[in-house]
Amino acid sequence: MMLLASDIEVAQNVGFGIIATIMVLGALNVVRSSNVVHAALSLVAVMAGAAAQYLLLSAEFVAVTQVLVYIGAVMVLFLFGVMLTRAKLGKDVDLNNDKGWAVGAPVALLLLGVMSYVLIKGFEDDKIVVSGKGNASAAANRALSDAIFSSYALPFWALSFVLLAAVIGAIVLARKD
Amino acid sequence: MLINNFLLLGAVLFCIGVYGVIARKNAVLVLMSIELILNSVNINLLAFDQLNGTNDGAVFALYIIAIAAAEVGVGLAMVLLIFRNRKTIALDDLSEMKG
């Protein structure tokens, strides 16, 4: 079985499996839970798992950014959103579309089938070389910051304008006159 | 590690997110499902980044994180505005643009 890859890097594969299981269960709870706060807390589990997967992919800087921005900032925004829209604390039966699952489940399963067929066909046994330890990751982070501030400097500059516009837009929208 | 581990995890999370966007009615929960989709895309980008041995995927992932933060800020401001005007954030009540 190609997905197990038992001959190589057992520890990483076991870790990946555990984190992936937590992420998928958390994601299912986000879309199925009848309690808005539980859905938000499951989303924290998914985002923390994603940060752990980034560490497995030896992208430390992105993992730390994920924890700071998603688990720190975005989740607080979501909890404020839940609070300010006065969602019921506890079970709420009115969170889903009538017959929404009857449309959503076939679409999602069809999409999953097509994507996994293409991925398994296309990347049969391609392996990721997890780049070394110690100084190698420091060098990778240095190269990443070089890339952001040299070849990707213009998108970085544009991104700061997007964030500024989003902040001003959010204030203008949510302000009480 | 096989790259397909990460790509299939990304595919599963993406499909769960798509299901959430279709099946949920509460606007905050739809925004949470969109966050699931963005996270799955980030996993894919970083996996391809490792496969190619370049930094481009990590840069893209960082920019996606920043855009997602902006999107959530504006999205929740819109949700608050809708709640203030209508006392509900059920998305199927917003049908004025239906032909």
Can you walk me through this structure?
The complex is a heterodimer of chains A (177) and B (99). Chain A has helices at 10-32, 36-56, 60-84, 100-122, 135-149, 153-174. Chain A contains 6 helices and no strands. Chain A is globular and about 50 Å long. With 177 residues, chain A is mostly helical. Chain B has 3 helices and no strands. Chain B is elongated, with a radius of gyration of 17 Å. Chain B has a single domain, classed as Helix Hairpins, CATH 1.10.287.3510. Chain B is an all-alpha fold and 99 residues long. The chains are: A mainly alpha (177), B mainly alpha (99). Chains A and B meet through helix 1, helix 2, helix 3, helix 4 and helix 5 of A and helix 1, helix 2 and helix 3 of B.
How much helical structure, as a percent, in the residues of chain B?
over 70%
So what's the overall shape of chain B? elongated
Report the structural category of chain A.
mainly alpha
Distance between the termini of chain A: 62 Å
Main beta sheet of chain A: strand number and arrangement? none
Number of domains of chain A: 2
Gyration radius of chain A, in Å: 20 Å
User: How many strands appear in the DSSP assignment of chain A?
Assistant: 0
Total separate domains of chain B: 1
Relevant CATH superfamily of the largest domain in chain A = NADH-ubiquinone/plastoquinone oxidoreductase chain 6, subunit NuoJ
Mean pLDDT, all residues of chain A: 87
The CATH architecture of chain B: Orthogonal Bundle
